[in-house]
Fold these 3 entries.
Entry 1:
Amino acid sequence: MIETFLWLLGYQFAGELLARSLGWPIPGAVLGMLFLFLTLCLRKGIPDTLRHNVPRLMTHMSLLFIPAGAGILAFWPLLAERPLAMAAVLLLSTLATLLISALTLTLLLHRQKSRKIRS
């Protein structure tokens, strides 16, 4: 379990370091997830520690919503000034997430089907 935390925190740290040093508006955690994804793609597999421990961590995902809730409370006056803009941003980001997820799933299923046909 400690090794899994080190993996995840290391990638988040690398993402934060890159985002802050280059002044990018992308959150470091997102860059860290991208780095982890690229690493797993290059390895062409998932290490056993991640494979076995991440599902246990996923059972505590509600903890990840605490920073988002704190952010809403901290910026509530700003959010309340522009309710339509916030609703539009939430709607568009949700639709973009669904669309990208669907396209990724379609691409991966097509790729898996092609591999099965070749073998």
Entry 2:
Amino acid sequence: MIDFDQLDKTIHEKSRLSIMTLLSTRGEWAFQDLKAELGMSDGNLITHLRTLGTAGYVQESRDDSGTRPRTTYAVTPAGTKAFKSYVDVLEAIVKAMNPG
């Protein structure tokens, strides 16, 4: 039996799942690139990034060396572990649907 309580509610929200998927599969992303890829507003994206950051899943880095400040985000080791656990539960669901 699948333990649905193992689905991490912080990651489970669609926008946060999208962010975690991009950061987990492609590494560090700049805020503007995430915004363009996900089609999210500044406010919506920053809210979800803060939620993931508060959970310790995403780390923010700032680079002020250029003409414009650049903020990037990357998954932390705790975020990688949490995302893998989340995907493991999804895989168990898929296997339950296709037992053969």
Entry 3:
Amino acid sequence: MLNKLSNDVVEERNGLWLLFAWMIAVAATLTALFIGEIVGQTPCNLCWFQRIFMFPLAIILGIAAFRSDSSIKFYALPLVGLGAAIAFFHTLIYFGLVEEAIVPCTRSGTSCAGEAMTILGSVPLPLASLIAFAAIGGLLSLCRPGVYR
């Protein structure tokens, strides 16, 4: 037997997924700003590109969570996908799976694979970014249209 959910239950769950996605985006944005502005660590080139895709998510997911607008996933998922792709590439560089010759961050500023690329002493920032983008994408994928009567 097919278990159909009412519109109210679907909207309640969508609102919850959007709220969690927004909270992750805000936490990632505040962490990036803290590292850059308070700690004083200059972001590498790949970090800048990840910020370009994460910062708007903190705004548009907040608006969508407030309005319970699950259609935001059609606009947010491309941002999540591009940010996750950059974070994945950055993670490969950090763990040495991509050769140094194609590392774009060695000309100036912070290295993409240096010791400064950790948070809390041991968590690599590129991996944390990848997990944040993946979690946001997963939560947005859980949003679904309601069942109309």
